[in-house]
């Protein structure tokens, strides 16, 4: 019972992060399932089955708050579904001994990317309003879908930063559109896993609990995306993913690191992680302070212009 409650809380927290950042539900949930001994294909299948419900709830919530661009959803979601089906069947064909470290490497890479991306760069906002081309979105969706299925997560970490980096879509619409399109990816990946491994390795109670936690969090996250500081949240989540998957790799048959090596590695990651979060907090506060100064200067400039226009009239 404790395990189910924990999974429900993880599903809630993961969807809260995913709905606010446009990434990390699958990466966070799969990382936990791997940490408690679930085999790679079954972990990814469990998460993707839960995501059918969570992404539907998240997509509807984002749509209700005006966070979805449906052209982007179609242009990235359909290629993403193709890539996810291919990735699911590929992962299903690997042995457990090979699949677990491979998935940990993919998750670790995505965790490092999230940590560095949000800590160092925050959210780019240039080029807003310019169209996103199909020739950009289709290959991106194909790659993100394949990585998502093989890594148990990755649709958001690959798709969201790439679209944000283009600077052509408002951040809240990037998050909403990526979350809405993930519904197609989750369905395709789930079908691929059923074809590859069947249903006997999937614990449907775990699926239901992850789904319940995610569905509860979805509308809250859709509202929070307008208010939460993504830079700080991205740094925090990236650190969790990096630490957990380094732990899995160091304990795997590929490395079998000694206890001392593991302790040193964890301490180094913890220090870097804490520094990253602190830096993100500092940069966020500085950006907010700069925005306040610019707002005051803009208001003062507007007041002076009005005063200059009123003087000739009164004369």
What's this, in brief?
Residues 287-315 are annotated as: Disordered. This protein is mainly alpha-helical. It has helices at residues 2-21, 25-35, 40-64, 70-92, 96-121, 134-151, 155-166, 171-197, 204-224, 230-250, 259-314.
Task: Compute the separation of the termini in Å.
Answer: 81 Å
The number of distinct helices, counting runs of at least 4 residues, comes to 11
How much of the sequence lies in strands comes to under 5%
Question: Helix/strand/pairing class, anyone?
Answer: mainly alpha
The Rg value, from CA coordinates, equals 21 Å
Shape by Cα distribution: globular
What does the model show?
The protein is mainly α. It has one domain. Helices cover 83% and strands 0% of the residues. It has 11 helices and no strands. Helix 1 packs across helix 8. The radius of gyration is 21 Å and the shape is globular. The mean pLDDT is 77.
What descriptors fit this protein?
315 residues, 83% helix, transmembrane helix, 11 helices, mainly alpha, globular, single chain
Outline the fold blueprint.
Elements: H1 2-21, H2 25-35, H3 40-64, H4 70-92, H5 96-121, H6 134-151, H7 155-166, H8 171-197, H9 204-224, H10 230-250, H11 259-314
Family: Belongs to the 4-toluene sulfonate uptake permease (TSUP) (TC 2.A.102) family.
Protein name: Probable membrane transporter protein
Pfam families: TauE
